[in-house]
Amino acid sequence: MFYRTAGQFKTDYQSDFALFPVRQDAWLLAFILLLAFVVFPMTADEFTFRALLIPVLIYSLAALGLNILTGFAGQLSLGTGAFMGVGAYACYKLVTIFPEINLIVAIALSGFFSATVGMAFGLPSLRIKGFYLAIATLAAQFFLVWLFQKWAWLYNYSTSGAIQVPNIDMFGITIAGPNAKAITQYYVVLCVVAVVTYLAINITRGRIGRIWKSIRDMDIAAELVGINLMKAKLLAFFVSSYIVGVAGALFVFLWRGAAEANLFDIPLSFRVLFIAIIGGLGSIMGNFLGAILIVALPVLLNTVPHLFGLSISSSAVEHLNVMIIGALIITFLILEPHGLARYWQVIREKLIIWPFPH
Amino acid sequence: MRKLIRAAILSSAVAVAGIASSAALAEDSITLSNLSYRTGPFAATGIPLMNGQRDYIMMLNDRDGGVNGVKLNYEECETGYSTEKGVECYEATKGESIVTQPWSTGITLQVLPKSNVDKIPILAPGYGFSAMQDGKTFQWAFNPPASYWDGASMILSNISDGNLDGLKGKKIAFLHLDHPYGKEPIPLFEQMAAKHGFTFLPIPVGLTEMQNQSAQWLQIRRERPDYVIMWGWGAMNAGAITEAVKTNYPMDQFIGIWWSSLDGDLKLVGDKGKGYRAISWSLPNSEAPVMQDIKKHVVDAGKSLINQGEGEFDWVFYQRGVMISMMLVEGVKAAQEHFDAKVINAEQLRWGLENLNIDEAKLEALGMSGMIPPFSTSCSDHTGHSGAWMLQWNGSKFEQASDLLTADREAIDALAKDGAAKYAEANAPWPVNEECKM
Fold it and tell me: CB distance A260–B109 less than 8 Å?
């Protein structure tokens, strides 16, 4: 009834393979984009931008990058945090060496640095699989964070060992640094995330995406039907690390404003991995749902006692928060091991046949 | 179900009443928020400090009804020492609070550039950037009463009995957290080592190896340094002290910064820690009138969160927390007086913190003479450079072990000026206080 697909006939293959074969999906997306581009910016205050909207988008992008590698190509990686760091430090060096560079260009370029590094650390994937590969990427994690600390050139020899984002203008508007307004940063992040997501959707449902999926499902069979495993796996590492690097550059330049090497340590990798797993491996939308659960929900829960005027000490709230989020994650994973994206699919199917049970 | 609904209605009614009453209270109050960390890997060091800060303000509210008739609203926002949560807390509190107390060098780094835009003072007593002493450049940041470079210089002057050339040919190991905080004093040490001819050996401890420092202490055993100076925090302090005891490193050659003087860490080793020293700009004195008032109004009234079984009341950290809140409250008082206002805003507090004058007479009046050295701030000096004492562990508590030490101003001021200029250049356009002629 709400999601009636009856009567939407496809008369050629092209329309059958369209991005949204069902009209309601397109409307839903249009509605979400309307929320993101118009409604949120008009209603949100600075806290909402800086603590909810911007981090959710950036974490979604990082998880999307990881999901291409783990969810689509089936290569488990624990080095996401470090690859984000490569993107961030590359962007920092680009911006400080060429102060005239357009920040968006710098962010797009810094993705190539992390893509190259990611591909280099992806080489072991040609020989080893599964958990063993995860350990190899863990090596990348430790090595790169160590490098961020020890290679003083990366942070321009500052005594604190941290990188600071200077004020950066684009077309006369400050988009990064302390003088930037939250709303401009939000729009920049939103546009980058929207463009990358659009590209990712099309890569994953096209020829390359199918190659990746075939490797994930059974690599020997894929090789037998003539897929070049080396090329495909390295391409997966390249694309994934590119997106992760862009997310890392956004992470520091359009959100945090400053970063030290420890920021990119293993907890960040795990956080992104959790988002991808809870959102749903092998799904694009899942990353956004996962990020909302892992990043935004704790912030929202923190404000609940205040709304009701309860005076619970903030540390008690924090403890409660950890417990609630942990319980939710376990509940979701028990009820639906394939993640939040699968939930949406189930709901959508139910809506299509509603009010009939089958 | 009906019961449940009734309970829900009842609780929301209570909540609404609560909001209404808090709105009525809000008329004459000043909100002072604190980005605390009572959870996470650094909670052990955070909790006594936060308790001290909280209890001093609670005592003022109870004893004097606040400051000049204005209630002080002390609020905590939990960060768990994570910079990410820190930014969230900063954004959440900056609307109401007139001050931000970031409580971590990492969070200070994040909020420092924003303070010029948001116009809210940062109070980072005894931590943050040492270059923050340059008040002309860092208009909104305050780190009274002493900076890390002060601390490093005073430790060196103490171990050399005032004559740094006496350190010639000696080897000093610097055991530090591999983090902006631990790296902060390295430039000063390096400069001093070159000038006075001692060997400086930095030994970093990564965040993941805080609890297990066997590799670092193996290196110390091999190198046999004459002194080990420690810049540790949280679990790292306890790890280093137990490891030093295990390797039989002479405790009287082991000196920590003020954040490495947690009683609880030394209680772990007890008598074996005898002789360990730490520099400190605060001196615990549980008999001081202010501490007695806190005992009467807060602790005995059951409003404090301290662990009385552990004797937290007597700890260096707890009483240092009291000193920190004192500085903040004195800033509020100075601003109230200058602007002839009761409820002050963030910009007025900035003036107050810039014109702190903590002299002997004021300390006496506050009932805390001898607990902190006198100091004063100005528009060009946001630190005050009070000097500090050496504390020594006697097996059961810290005792004063030196007269008031002072730092090598000449070397530090030059370094701070340089650091501030570099920071301003890297973050251009950075506003500098042109009005300050000092």
Answer: yes
